[in-house]
Amino acid sequence: MINYISEQELEQNIENCIIVDARTELEYTSGHVLNAVNLPIDPNLMDKAGNLINMFEWAAIMSRMGISNTDTIIVYDNGAGKFAARFWYAAKYYGHQNIAILEGGFHEIKNLKITTELPNRQHTYYEPLATPGYMCFLLETLQNFELLKFVDTRSNEEWSGQLSAGNPRVGRIPGAVHLNYERLIEGAYLKQPTEIREIAEGVGLLPEDTLVLYCQLGARATLAGMALREAGYQNVWVYDGSMYEWSRHKALALEV
């Protein structure tokens, strides 16, 4: 299945989709796409340390929202998809096959019906399956460190160490290359695949590389990961703990 869907394509297939609104509860209750269910990424998909919830918690949430393994999910947030991409990566990691992000997000919707009515969905049974190729965690990044190319998708100030973002130590993972995720988007949309690829190759990322993307808590890295996938990169992982976790392990080196 495609990774992104236009509003027009969603209109044509809306009866066959489960729509997930990844914005905050306040934004959702102020108006959302008809029949959309609400799942703010924080705190629902992340624990207090910013790590992805486990598969049993994921299954419980999906079941509560009335989503089954075979459903087609369309997810949106307010813009280019930073939080929608976080949901996409989580869903893919836990084995969901049919999922796409709504291009442009909520603020770009022109024709879909917007409502404040809450959908009435029945509980389902959801069976998760951890799937390699999407998320990676601290132990496996350390075990395969020499085989991976780390990509820091944070801001220029975070990359240079001028901004700590609340971390106890500043810097970046040794050997990482910098690709600020903002370079890959234009307004509420990803840039064209050819432009994304040109930018990525400009910082030394090759399509055959196994890329591990990180930021502070994972959202920016997932959006950058979606952009690279759209540009033809196949092996694009997101380091779930990102700099929040790495900076708190004093034994792990940081470059500045």
Describe the structure.
This protein has 256 residues and is of the alpha/beta class. It has ten helices and 14 strands. It has helices at residues 7-13, 25-30, 41-44, 55-64, 82-93, 138-143, 156-160, 193-202, 219-230, 242-246; strands at 4-5, 17-21, 32-33, 37-38, 72-76, 99-102, 114-115, 135-136, 149-152, 177-178, 185-186, 189-190, 211-214, 236-239. The chain has a five-stranded parallel β-sheet. A five-stranded parallel β-sheet has the order 8-14-13-9-10. Strand 9 (149-152), helix 7 and strand 10 form a beta-alpha-beta unit. Helix 5 (82-93) crosses helix 9 (219-230). The chain starts with a strand and ends in a 10-residue tail after the last helix.
Keywords summarizing the entry:
256 residues, alpha/beta, 5-stranded parallel sheet
Strand content: 15-25%
Q: Major sheet: size, sense and barrel closure? A: 5 strands, parallel
Number of strands: 14
Order of helices and strands: EHEHEEHHEHEEEHEHEEEHEHEH
Q: What does the radius of gyration come to?
A: 18 Å
- Helical region count? 10
Shape type = globular
Q: Strands of the biggest beta sheet: in what spatial order?
A: 1-6-5-2-4
Q: Distance between termini?
A: 40 Å
Estimated structural class:
alpha/beta
User: Which regions contain 5 or more consecutive residues with pLDDT less than 50?
Assistant: none
Helical proportion? 25-40%
Mean pLDDT: 96
